[in-house]
Amino acid sequence: MQVSNYCSGRLHHALTEELKVFEKENFKGTMQDQWEKVFTNCFQMVDDEVGGRIAKNVGSTAVVALICSSHIIVANCGDSRGVLYRGKEAVPLSNDHKPSREDERRRIEAAGGTIIQYYGQRVCGVLSMSRSIGEQTMQNLKTGHIVNI
Hints:
Elements: H1 3-24, H2 31-51, E1 59-60, E2 62-67, E3 72-77, E4 83-86, E5 89-92, H3 102-110, E6 115-117, E7 121-123, E8 133-134, E9 146-148
Antiparallel strand pairs: 1-8, 2-3, 3-9, 4-5, 6-7
């Protein structure tokens, strides 16, 4: 099974499931907090599902955009990138999760990982992105997914 194929066929269903669960909860917080919870749970669900089905060193990055009447909500994991073309300008909708980002470096090192320079900066000398779905060999370094609203 290719993780990327699984993600492309599953993430939107997982998001629908999480939205149904969320509607039943009495969650307090800002709109951003609410969307972060929904998307974090969605990405975690798919990551958990992938975990038992693939080789431990296989993973994928992902980006999901939900277009509402007044907002575009984007969640990403890894270095998949969401971009909106408006007029004559490309507007970034997400931030790549790369080990070269200082905040990602700190997070990885706090989790016990290292960044090694090997054809670019890599997590433990292996991954060129700092977050992924799957990639069970790096599981202890994955601490959630970022949601950009």
